[in-house]
Amino acid sequence: MHIVIIAGSNRAQSQSGRIAAIIADELTALGPVSHDILDLHQTPLPFWDETKNDDTPPWDEVWVPVRDRLARADGFAFVVPEWNGMAPPHVKNLFLLTNGQFAHKPAMIVGVSAGVGGAYPAAELRMTAAKNSHICWVPEQLILRDVRNFDPVNEPRTMDRMRYGLKMLTAYADAIGPIRENLMDLENYRNGP
After folding, report:
1. Residue 147 and residue 167: Cα distance in Å, rounded?
2. 14, 27, 49, 129: which could form a disulfide with 125 (CB 3.0–4.6 Å)?
3. Contact 6, 93 (CB under 8 A)
4. 101-128 burial string, b = 16+ CB within 10 Å, else e?
5. E strand or H helix at 136
């Protein structure tokens, strides 16, 4: 099983990147789960335009390797900061760029906020990101408020909740895999109703 952790901030030294690394450590502790981190700061993606499907520069150099990484994944953990009450544009852009790579794969949302927010990006992604991507958001999510002061050692209850969510994510990935392999038909049913 392979989980891709998406650090949704395009800022250097972001809290999203720090939390993604903590999630990676927790996935390693789960056992036979491989993972990698797609940091949207370290891997800046061009914003979608009509040339995307041409596989010409910059798409062939930048997007194609990311597309292939996402296609190999069995599930995803999205670490999404709240910027002015919204998910960052780079996270939304990722959904515009994908063309089946998220389809019928489970994903867990981890919202982060420097203040007391963090819930709006989770609601926004649940409401808008699944229609044409066909991503399957798991019911478990985690909101980390005052994230700059988050220390896993001092937050055992939050870390227990994170581990529980990641165990559920991997269980969903196991369960959904055969459905994706045997029933998925994106050729005829690519867009949602």
Report:
1. 22
2. 129
3. no
4. bbbbbbbbbbbbbeeebbbbbbebbeee
5. strand 136-144
Determine the length of the chain. Answer: 193
- The percent of residues above 90 in pLDDT, for the chain, comes to 79
Which structure tokens are listed for 89? 């544009």
Residue 162 has pLDDT above 90, yes or no: yes
Tokens of 51: 């040339």
For residue 10, give the DSSP letter: -
Query: What is the per-residue pLDDT for 47?
Result: 92
Phi, psi of 179 (to 5 degrees): -65, -45
159, 167 contact by CB (below 8 A): no
Q: Specify whether the CB–CB gap between 11 and 147 falls below 8 A.
A: no
Looking at residue 86, the DSSP 8-state letter turns out to be B
Beta partners for residue 143, in sequence order? 111
